[in-house]
Structure formats: C-alpha cells, structure tokens
Write a structure and sequence with these properties.
Layout lengths: L1 E5 L6 H6 L1 E5 L9 E10 L2 H7 L11 E2 L3 E9 L10 E5 L11 E5 L3 E3 L6 H5 L4 H12 L6 E4 L5 H12 L3 E6 L2 H9 L4 E4 L5 H11 L2 E6 L3 H8 L7 E4 L13 H6 L4 E3 L2 H10 L3 H14 L6 E6 L3 H10 L5 E5 L1
Parallel strand pairs: 9-10, 9-12, 10-11, 12-13, 13-14, 15-16
Antiparallel strand pairs: 1-2, 1-4, 3-5, 3-7, 3-16, 5-6, 6-8
Helix pairs in contact: 4-5
The structure holds NADP nicotinamide-adenine-dinucleotide phosphate (NAP).
Length: 333
Amino acid sequence: MKGLELQQYNKNIIRALLSLKLIEKETPKPQDKEVLIKMYASPVNPSDIAFMQGGYNIVKSLPSIMGFEGAGIVIDTGENAKEFLGKKVSCFVQEDADGTWADFVITKKYNVIPLLDDMDMDQAAALAVNPFTAAGLMEQANCEKGTALILTAAGGQVARFCRDIAKERGVRTINIVRKDETLEKLKAGGVEFVLNEQDDDFPEKLKEISKKVKICSAFDAVGGELTGKIFNILPDGANLILYGGLSNKPVCGLDNLKIIFNKNKLYGFSLPDWIKSKIDTGEFYGISEKIQKKFIEGTFKTEIRKSVKLKDAINGIRDYISNMSKGKILLKP
Ligand SMILES: NC(=O)c1ccc[n+]([C@@H]2O[C@H](COP(=O)([O-])OP(=O)(O)OC[C@H]3O[C@@H](n4cnc5c(N)ncnc54)[C@H](OP(=O)(O)O)[C@@H]3O)[C@@H](O)[C@H]2O)c1
C-alpha cells in the first residue's frame, strides 16, 4: 500500500509539509473487529494542519500516515466485522495508527459509517467530520425560530452546514469572516448578515446588528480576541460554543461582569465526545441517515475545490491553506 507519512511535527507549516513522504509498505490484514478499506478519497481539514504542527489534541507516534477521515469500500474484514464486507463507507480515524491519506486504511468497525446507495463518493469523503459537527452544534444551540446565531470562520464548511440547518429552522445567522473576498462570496450567495472581523468598525457593526435581532448563541472556531469581542455583545443567557482554535491564540478579552451577572457561558464542543454520546443512546445511525439524505436531496454539500493525487498532495495542501474558504482539497490515491 501507499500512504502519505508525516515524519516530524513542526510549528512551521512549510517545514511540516516538507516532512511528508509518500511511502510504500505491506498492506496489513484486518483482525477481529477491524475492516480494510480501499480508499476513494480523503479531505484536508484544519485539524490535519494543526496535527502536522503538533498543535492538535491528537498526537501520534511518528512516522505515521496522515488523515482523519475519508471514504472507500470495505474489501476485507476480521472475523467480527464481516457485516461490512463489500460496503461503501465513510470513516473517522483518530487512534494512534495510520490514517486515511493512503490507498488502503485499516480501522475498527466502530469508526465506520455505512453509506446509503445514492451517496456521492466525493461528498462521502468529507461526511464523517463537518456535517456531524454542525448537527451536534445545532443541537446545543437552543435557537428558536426568528432568533439569530453568530458563526465565525463563516466561509468554512462547518459554518456552511450550520447555516443550512439554521435556515431550515427559521434561525437567522450573523456570519463573521476575515477577508472581503469571502464576505462578497457569502453576500452573493444570499447570506443576510456578513461582517469582516478585520474591519476597524467590526465591534460597532456587530453591536448594531445585535440591537436589530435577538442573538441566541454563537459558534466560534477562531478563538483569540475575536471570542471576547463576540462574547461581550451576547444578550442575557446566550452562550458561546468554542469548537476550533484557528487563530492559534488563547481566548481573551471576556467581560468578567457578563460572566457574573448576565449568566453568559462559554464552553467547548468536541465531535468524538458527541458521537460517542449518540452511539451510547443508539441515535447515531439514525442521525447519519438523516444527514446523508440531505446530501442526496442536495440540501447539504461540501464545497470541493479540487482533487489531487497523493503524490501531488503538498502543492494541493499549500493551495488549501492559502484560501480555505474556496473549499476542500480531496486527496485521491
Ligand atoms: N470541535 C470539533 O470537534 C470540530 C469538528 C470539526 C471541525 N472543527 C473545527 O472547525 C473549524 C472549521 O473547520 P472547516 O473544516 O469548516 O474549515 P474549512 O472549510 O477548511 O475552512 C476554514 C475556514 O476558517 C477560516 N480561517 C482560517 N484561519 C483563520 C483565522 N486565523 N482566523 C479567522 N478565520 C480563519 C478560513 O478563512 P480563509 O478563507 O480566510 O482562510 C475558512 O473560512 C476548524 O477549526 C476545525 O478544526 C472542530
């Protein structure tokens, strides 16, 4: 099998990228509850970038093949995973083992999501992480029809799915981006409120909108000062859910009095924990079917900018980093 192996963590992303090596090794044999997936495609996500920089909560023993999610077909299984043989699947793999940026991956059957027949395989490649994250966040938002939800990194795919679900529920969104180009793109797509966090008058503009609409919640993937700016304009009782740290800066600038007197809370969201809770309650596969049906009927779509071969991954990843709002890069064997 072939795979893209990370040799060394490096805070400098260019150096980290240069330590990626396309290697060949013997394809492992699945044991017990494991499946062997012939990979179709795998996306590049912000978590992959943070992982390469040694700045993610998953730290693997290196060298290790990269990639936390993808899609493919199960071509072999251990004794206790035979029900998956021949099935098209998405997978979410975070253990200290080889990942999905490869032509074959071996994983435990509980990391696998069976796909509905009509699920498009490019879309399936980026199914396991972002759409489920949006579903989990929206479950915790507690936003009623007519209220408004703040989204940061609003040009990204999680924000896009949150907007789609919010729209279905009659919830408005206040979208925060960091580039005018992304602002214009969202406005051209019919998005109502879009602000650029880099504008000098961003805090005033945000305050102005917050007087016009009732904000119910905020989902923040950026951290740093932006979190404080948003938290401080939240109305009584509205919470901020932090689900990413794209700025690489600690959350700061929160108004103490708001925490004490206005009962605004800030807490985190972690997809693996949410998935585990849904598996424990037996809801997970039902949620998965609902999400996949949204893709099949066309209400959900991951924006995919291009697909590149594993051997061309470094250039593809550089393209992705230079403008993440343009959509995902898929790596294909
Ligand atoms: N907590 C969880 O379990 C969980 C699960 C899934 C995803 N996430 C997180 O969700 C976030 C979004 O992921 P995604 O896949 O939706 O991203 P994506 O589609 O790849 O897009 C990333 C977005 O973030 C913006 N961005 C990047 N760096 C930024 C910065 N320093 N300040 C402000 N904006 C920045 C990009 O804007 P430009 O176009 O300007 O670069 C782009 O719009 C990531 O942090 C990811 O790790 C968390």
